[in-house]
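Researcher: Structure for this, please.
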Amino acid sequence: MRILFSFLTILLTMAFFVSGVVYLIARTFGKIAWNPESKAFKRMLERLRSQLNKVATDLVPWDNEMLSLLSLNRINEKKPGWFSNVSSGQITTIYQEPVVAYVTQTVGKTSVTVVRTSDREFVLRRKGKETEIWLNNKPLGLYVDGVLLAPGKGSNMLARLENKPEEVESPLVLGDLTAATVRNPKRADGPNPRALTLLRELDPKEESLTLAIALEQLQEK
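Model: Predicted structure, token format:
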């Protein structure tokens, strides 16, 4: 009996040791893979873009009216399963036209989303409460606590979402003026809820900033 007990003790000790080693390796690899400067991160983006190519085949061309028509509705969704931590789908206009395609890979509290319209691509790397955003392979900014900060040491404020979790919509300020109201995905109702409502005309840069924040908020849905 003592021999059997000793044998089981050795087996359990070895199992805990192996589990610990595997955990440390996975944690270390995870830190490397999710580092935007690493080759592993770039390879992951290549894989996500390859998958996105299949999701974005039938997107309607983006024009200057599409932002105001963007809805919260998703179609052709594929959610993560037992053997995959990747989700994908399309976002439509209020007229059910697919205008945005996305692919997301999630590990723990970190996720990377590649989003594409017919004319631009966003990459959103969310870690905890911070989201790094790239537009067409160039850093757009860091979104944290409702504020989108410009990349670099200056960290000038590009946009501010006056987030009101209990409200249906939250004002989005670009510069000194409110440019739009962004709908809270968790409080949206109706069959075709708009993602946002524009309050003034936007130039191309402002449109990209507004779309980036709207897409970041859509991750909450």
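Researcher: Any notable elements?
Model: The longest strand covers residues 98-107. The chain has one domain: 52-218.
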